[in-house]
Design goal:
Blueprint (H helix, E strand, L loop, with lengths): L1 E9 L10 E10 L2 E10 L8 H7 L3 H4 L5 H12 L3 E4 L2 H14 L12 E4 H8 L7 H8 L11 H17 L39 H18 L14
Parallel strand pairs: 1-4, 4-5
Antiparallel strand pairs: 1-2, 2-3
Helix pairs in contact: 6-7
């Protein structure tokens, strides 16, 4: 499964007011693993960046003056995302801007959904954490993703951060390999293969805790509960039913 985690920066927040894309950042996932491939470009929007937008991303008109137009990069961009599932935080915003740029070129590339499916991580986050803040910064804090370099928004950096958040939010441990290869082999085989255990292997030993170990365990738990201010209910009490 090929997924592209995507983010954009723009001259302003409202596409209907003629605002344009000034930066696109994408990172590639293959079978939920970062491949190291990415697409990143700054774009001359042929209009001024609003003051409010500049405060968010820090990308100035002067910086963008010598950058390529969207028309100059569209073929490479569409080739990079074609056939992938796009992973975007607040997807309606980014897809709306990309579709607007494609329309300005006469629509020869169609729309984003003609080439890709789209997953909105904001909707996923709202389903998992209703009533809570689900901005990218809030999700980084919730899932322990390091965003200390994110003083300003940047499309490529935000895409890289979102990739980490997305993998954790949708799958927990993301580095767990089910490869059939041994630990010393190069990681070039089928990432989806499962290592089968030999059915003739000897039975695993089951070691039961001794009475003394169980008593020590209960004593330790009681000490922890007391220190935390909890009531130490007996853990060995029988369930009483009517």
């Amino acid at each position: 499964m090929r997924e592209i985690v995507l983010d954009t920066e723009t001259t302003g927040i409202e596409v209907r007011e003629g605002h344009r894309i000034i930066e696109i950042g994408c990172v590639e996932l293959l079978d939920r693993r970062l491949t190291g491939r990415h697409f990143h470009v700054y774009i001359n929007p042929q209009r001024e960046v609003e003051e409010g937008a500049f405060a968010v991303h820090g990308i100035s008109d002067a910086f963008l003056a010598d950058k390529p137009l969207f028309a100059d990069v569209v073929d490479d961009f569409m080739a990079f995302i074609k056939g992938a599932r796009l992973v975007i935080h607040n997807a309606a915003f980014d897809v709306g801007f990309i579709d607007a740029e494609l329309q300005l070129l006469g629509g020869r590339h169609g729309q984003v959904v003609d080439h890709c499916s789209v997953v909105d991580t904001l909707r996923i986050a709202r389903d998992k954490h209703p009533g809570q803040r689900n901005s990218l910064d809030a999700l980084c804090k919730r899932y322990g993703v390091d965003n200390s370099q994110r003083d300003l928004h940047g499309a490529l950096l935000d895409a890289e951060i979102l990739a980490d958040v997305y993998l954790i939010m949708t799958g927990g441990q993301t580095a767990l390999s089910l490869s059939s290869q041994g630990a010393g082999d190069n990681d070039t085989g089928d990432l989806g293969a499962i290592r089968r255990l030999d059915p003739a292997r000897p039975a695993l030993r089951v070691i039961q805790a001794s009475e003394a170990e169980l008593a020590a365990h209960e004593e330790r738990l009681a000490a922890i509960e007391k220190a935390a201010g909890f009531v130490a209910w007996p853990r060995t009490a029988e369930l009483v039913t009517e």
